[in-house]
Amino acid sequence: MDLPILVENLVVRFASSRGADVRAVDGLTLRVEAGQAIGFLGPNGAGKTTAIHVMLGFIPADSGRVSLFGRDARDAAARRRIGYLPEQADAYRFLTGREWLRFTGRLCGLRGRALENRVEATLDEVDLREAADRRIATYSRGMRQRIALGQALVHEPSLLILDEPTSGLDPVARLRFRNRMAAWRAEGRTIFFSSHELSEVELVCDRVAILARGRLLAEGPPSSLVKPGERLEACFMRTVGEGGGP
Amino acid sequence: MNALAIAVVVWVDWMRRKDVYVFLVMLVAILFAVTSVDAFGLRGVALYGLDVALLLAWLFGWLLAVNAGSRELPQEESRGTVFLLLAKPMTRADLVIGKWIGAWTSVACAVALFYVAGSAVAWLRGVRFDAVVMVQALLLHAVALAILTALAVACSTRLNRDAAATLSGTISVAAFLLAHRIPELALHSRGWQGDALLVLYYVLPHLELFDIRQRVVHGFGPVGTATTASVILYGIALTATLLLAAWLAYRGKRFSRGALAE
Description:
The structure holds 2 protein chains of 2 kinds.
Chain A: E1 5-15, E2 21-32, E3 37-41, H1 48-55, E4 63-68, E5 71-72, E6 82-85, H2 97-107, H3 112-125, H4 141-153, E7 159-163, H5 171-186, E8 190-195, H6 198-204, E9 207-212, E10 215-220, H7 222-225, H8 232-242
Parallel strand pairs in A: 3-8, 3-9, 6-7, 7-8
Antiparallel strand pairs in A: 1-2, 1-4, 4-5, 9-10
Helix pairs in contact in A: 2-3
Chain B: H1 2-15, H2 18-35, H3 44-78, H4 81-86, H5 92-124, H6 131-156, H7 161-178, H8 182-187, H9 191-203, H10 213-218, H11 225-251, H12 258-261
Helix pairs in contact in B: 1-5, 2-3, 2-5, 3-5, 3-6, 3-7, 5-6, 5-11, 6-7, 6-11
């Protein structure tokens, strides 16, 4: 069976403002098995979002290979099984929540009754039924984050790629999000999730990958990375410190 | 199908923007004022009112086409929704074509409304014109708008909104005012300057071919079917070329978080 995510020796270079060659991702290799929840950790500027952008075909790799379900990441069909929630997610504010989900569902190939059923189910899933016919412009920040999450779920993807999904959410919304993640895992979905919230990752993920300065410093189940009596946060600080992180 | 879904959303965005309605109401008011002029009791003056109305339709259409075409793609980047769209099972060609269809059809419909309003006001003021020529004028104008929006979309694939609007606006004004005068200039130029002018003549879009306002106003009668078809085919070919260029530029574009800061 094809792996949901396979990254091999990925290198992404950028030219810095001084013209120097900067490796945003440096030889990253990662295998994500079906049904796993993997936390993608790293300090700011570690290359997490860049790696995710290459996975989704927004930027090309300078070398190495990325495949999603065995297909090239730039192949539109490969993205049919993926739900993506970007960092700083936004939606079309001139649409209502229901219209937004209908639009994004249509882009994923849903039509007719199936589309309407999924839109209604997703509104329930992100707790926005009451506000479904209000324009997104009138939503609070947390509601906008939920409607953006809705577009990632509307087509029932088997792989969820979430880039710092809880940033900017209040504690209640975070707790709800954590519960949702647990439910997705129970449904057998694969979750690839970047975050700064180590406690969240510790609770939800069965594997973590720690990245700093574009390099993968550690990868495996949290239990295999932490020392006895240590929390993931301490493990993270130790790993990033040893790896020459900022 | 994805391109159509995107076009529909561009439409909804247009319908829910109040500035377009304000603009339309303002133009109809100007139109009314202009066609009301009846200086010294001369009936012919109202005819020039229709001329002014059609000129306004061209100006209004040009402004909307350049603005709508250059806004759509950069807007997706500035609000970050481009990442959501490109993560869907759709191609960048779908996005470019969908944005163009949405922008062009909405501008063309706004201009058509203006033609209807202008014709109705002129008719009420006693101006009589050939309806067939008026329909031809609108059809050719719509094709010119297809070229203009495609040009603006092509510019916006690599530039931000303001730069794309400025560049596409400048090219289109230059094309409209200068392109048909280039052969005269070329006659008086020698060597490479003459060759360069001829290249420019063939490269610039010939928007003047789509402008038959004077035929409507002065009652010159309809343009022949073969000529109309040739001009429309030229417009379609030019639009397709511009959209191909837009897709080629957008296909290799690197999207990064930096886009959000623009």
